[in-house]
């Protein structure tokens, strides 16, 4: 009798586990994407070379190419949804998109709201400096002074980096990267703090207008963000990242956007 009872209990447990797994899969974003035949990606156009508009008005960039290969691997269409940065996590949480692929730094604060994949690239904060400060300012510590004004993008990790490392300086926040860096070009700010890729490209395009202090002073891993409670989607995404990094796909995309400047003439 005891053996029969244990066998029945084991069978019941297995049935419940199977039902639970099926429920998780039914609710999984991955299952919904496959049934819909379309992957909806939230991204904010304006962060070179990750997400930006070309001269035709289409959103292109490093993130977009990764999203394209991801959708192809799923066998679905891709829908890139341009979303303002301050509303991009709310958009994900309210099912306006399936995933955020938009150069988003993994932070504890964001991780309380969303889950992140393994990092797909690591960047850091650097400084675009007014030419008039050449030789006077050589690193971020020199800018930690009340006589300096620093510009950056509202809500970006650069915002928090300035508040943490240059708290004595005056901070002016802007909705976009381009607005912030123009403050330096126009003489209204002493420095612009932002991610290395953007600053490197901007300084190359605007030689003489800004000086790039290109040594990163923060460590910032970037990840894809998805809604919580979705192990199936997370498993697919992390395995997908491992696959494209192993088979050369990732390196090919990286070389296109980070090791070459041929694309710059085609963007707005």
Layout of strands and helices, then pairs:
Blueprint lengths: L1 H26 L1 H8 L1 E6 L8 E2 L5 E2 L1 H13 L2 E6 L5 H6 L5 E2 L7 H4 L3 E2 L4 E3 L1 E5 L19 E5 L3 H9 L4 E5 L2 H9 L5 E5 H10 L5 E3 L6 E3 L2 E2 L4 H17 L1 H10 L10
Parallel strand pairs: 1-4, 1-5, 9-10, 9-11
Antiparallel strand pairs: 2-3, 6-14, 7-13, 8-11, 8-12
Features:
single chain, 268 residues, alpha/beta, D-Maltodextrin-Binding Protein, domain 2, 5-stranded mixed beta sheet, 3-stranded parallel beta sheet, 10 helices, 14 strands, 42% helix, globular, Amino acid ABC transporter substrate-binding protein, PAAT family, signal, Solute-binding_3/MltF_N, SBP_3_CS
User: Which stretches are poorly predicted, pLDDT < 50 over at least 5 residues?
Assistant: none
What is the C-level CATH assignment of the largest domain?
A: Alpha Beta
Number of strands: 14
Strand order of the largest sheet: 10-9-11-8-12
Structural class: alpha/beta
Order of helices and strands: HHEEEHEHEHEEEEHEHEHEEEHH
Overall 3D shape: globular
Describe the protein.
The longest helix has 26 residues. The chain has a five-stranded mixed beta sheet, with helices on both faces. It folds into two domains: 146 residues, D-Maltodextrin-Binding Protein, domain 2, CATH 3.40.190; 94 residues, Periplasmic binding protein-like II (D-Maltodextrin-Binding Protein, domain 2). Helix 6 links the parallel strand 9 and strand 10. The mean pLDDT is 91. It has ten helices and 14 strands. The protein is 42% helix and 19% strand. It is an alpha/beta fold.
